[in-house]
Structures are given as C-alpha cells and as structure tokens.
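I am writing to request your help with a piece of structural work I have in hand. A protein sequence and the structure tokens that stand for its backbone fold form the material at issue. Please examine both parts with care and let me know of anything in them that strikes you as inconsistent. The record follows directly beneath this note.
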Amino acid sequence: MKLSGRQIDSFLDDPGNAVAAVLIYGPDQGLVRERADRIMRAVAGSTDDPFRTATVNEQDVADDAERLAAERSAMAFGGGRRAVRADGGDRLAPAVERALAAEGDGLVIIVAGDLTPRAKLRKICETAPNAAAIPCYADDARAMEQVIRDTLSSAGLTIGREAQAHLAANLGNDRLISRRELEKLVLYMQGAGPEVTLADAQACVGDNAGRGTEAVTRALASGDVAGLLSAYASARDLGETAVGMLRAAQRMFQRLHLAAGDVARGTRPEQAVDNLRPPVFFKEKPLFINALRSWAPGRLGTALDVLTEAERACKSGLGPDEVICERAFIRLARLTR
C-alpha cells in the first residue's frame, strides 16, 4: 500500500502486526535512514538489539535466497517482535516476495535509494496487502521550518523570523545533515538564549546546500566554469565519486530536458518546473527556471549524450575516472555559451 504524507508519522510509530514489510526509499537518504531507524525502534525497541534486530544486504540474499524470509520468521530470544533491515535495490525483490509469504511476525524494513515507479520493489510494496512503501523526498519549505521549530523547541529555544529563514536556506537537502547542524546550534546555545538570533544561526550553520555534488550540478546548469572547477574539487574532497557525479548530472539534465519539452509546447518555465515529478526542491526552482531560459532543448540533448559517453568511458577503463568526468563537465558548462 502507498502511504500518504499524513499517514507516515503514525505508521512509523505503529506499523501494525499485519504489515510484514515496509519499503523506505527516495533521494533524501538522510530522511530514509531517520525513518528506518524510527520504525525499527518502534518495533524492536532499539536499532541494535542482537536478539530482536538483524541486517541483510543484496549479497546476503544472493548467497542464500531464503535468508530474508528466515530472518522474518525467526523468533526473538526473550520474546517481542523482530525487525530485519534489508539494504539494497531491485535485486532484493525476489527475497522480499518470499519474506511476505513467510510465516512469522517479524517486520522487514527495506532501505533503498531513489526508485522509479517501475522499480520492482515499489510495485511489490505498493500493491501487496501486507506491505507498505514510504517515499522520502527533500524537505520542502514547510517541512524544513517544522524540523527547525521542533528541534529548537525540544531544547527550550525559540527562533526569530530572520534566523529561521537563514537556517531554512542553508541546511541543505539531507535530513540527517540538517539535524546534525541543528544539534550543533543547540549545543552552541547552551547557557544563552532562549531566542536564537540571526547572528547565532550564521555563526553555527554554514552553506551546506552549497557543497558536494549539488554544487557541481548547479555550476553546470548555470554554465559557471570557474565555479564548476571549485565545486568539483570540493566534491572530490568530500569523497564524491566521478560516476556518482555523472549520474547526478544526468538526472538533472533529464529533468531539464523534460521541462524544456513543456516550454517548447508553450508552457511558462515556472509552470514547467512546477510540473516536474518528483517536485523540484524549492531552493532549486530559480536555478531550474534560469537554466530553461539559457539551455535550448537541442543542447540539453547534447549534454545527456556527453554524460552518457563519459560514464561509458569510465566503465571501460579508458582513463582516470576523475579526469574523464572533469573534462565532460567543462565541456557541458561551455555549452551554455
């Protein structure tokens, strides 16, 4: 079954004994991990109880096709319901089907990345009567403000409008990173406050939305070669892989290409961006709208060809991946000129 946004919180605290598996997936991997931990604690009391929790991955089920079903059927020493975390993608699908049909009351928690509607895991968990699927998209403005208010309120702190706006604009798109930054702010405010001022927020929370792969894709979309080189070096320092960055760029240009088709049919760029699914993160909408005005559909197609060619070259061992990726990105950034 699919869960609506209003159902998710109550489901995470009490999934019910009739549910045998839940798929948690999406582009916000911080939120994915947060929700997986939350439902595991609700079912098994903790995330690391050796008698009531277990973790398997794709290789485990490849080695033993019955492993996931057996883990779900196993009885906990000392009683209580077990929670079995399974990390991976569609290679888990056959094992998940076996687990859904298995006896027992264990809950399988499948932790996955961003999955398309055609993904086998989504089809299984969205349609099976004893399974559920929970998407995890980046926080929109309202959700981000709620996370900020809840975190600060639980620490006995309040926040002014300007400080909240600064945090919302700089916390980034990953829920766990946002929470770590807010925890740092709470620690900073110990012995001060209770109101978090703009100066407090600026002192503690930098521009997390401006680092890593996201900074690279933003520089590509805007054709900023100097910014691209700086962002690329920073992303590599953060451990981002060449193929991972190429794929992130592919996803962005595919979305731009789709929106550009809408624009070519007479839709305003703003509406074309609003029409994209999953929705464009609110902070990225101006970037997308400006990119639609500077990238012709033909050049977006060329960009996708360049990225595909670069990924193929990386996988074929035609040179250092980092060099292939950097050259492809520079070529793309110059396409806007």
About this structure: Residues 86 and 266 are 45 Å apart (CA to CA). The mean pLDDT is 86. The two ends are 47 Å apart (CA to CA). Strands lie at 21-25, 53-57, 83-87, 107-111, 131-135, 158-159, 195-196.
